[in-house]
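Researcher: Let's try something more involved. This one mixes different molecule types, so please make sure each is placed in the same coordinate frame as the others.
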Amino acid sequence: GQSLEQPSEVTAVEGAIVQINCTYQTSGFYGLSWYQQHDGGAPTFLSYNGLDGLEETGRFSSFLSRSDSYGYLLLQELQMKDSASYFCAVQTGANNLFFGTGTRLTVIP
Amino acid sequence: NAGVTQTPKFRVLKTGQSMTLLCAQDMNHEYMYWYRQDPGMGLRLIHYSVGEGTTAKGEVPDGYNVSRLKKQNFLLGLESAAPSQTSVYFCASRISLNTEAFFGQGTRLTVV
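Model: All components are placed in one shared frame. Result:
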């Protein structure tokens, strides 16, 4: 089986930096993805890490440590529009994609 | 660019009724997925397909069936709906493993 753990809620101030952690246990691991979902909307892809290290895409960065079964999403220069739920997802060897329960980020002025 | 389209967007069913949710993608993707999303539960994988004519069970397959007769379509069936199947259903597709998954806009299903 597989399990993913991430904090249920995070609050941060506009303009600040926030980190959302994800730890996982899977039977077979190929990579870790992050998705964003606004209320009432569909999840949208943010980033993917297949190898250890940091991937940067604009204000968002994602990190993976395979040896620690751990990753995080880093959001910089927070904006009000970043208020959303963020999901980590693991790619397993069985061709499927499993999601965590999500972290609800609230950005306050 | 239609991407991933789900039909219908909303539906109310009575307990015991059946229905089929349609997912269509126009990106020639091999992999397609059906998820359900409940408050506090994240996205849970129901069934998935790695190509035309193939399907496999995910985390929560009971009470659902799927078919992938054409590469672009992935159907999710509920043979006898139960209130526990009240949820938002999302379909997703991607071209290969380790690539971005594209999601449809969801189907909000209520079983009364």
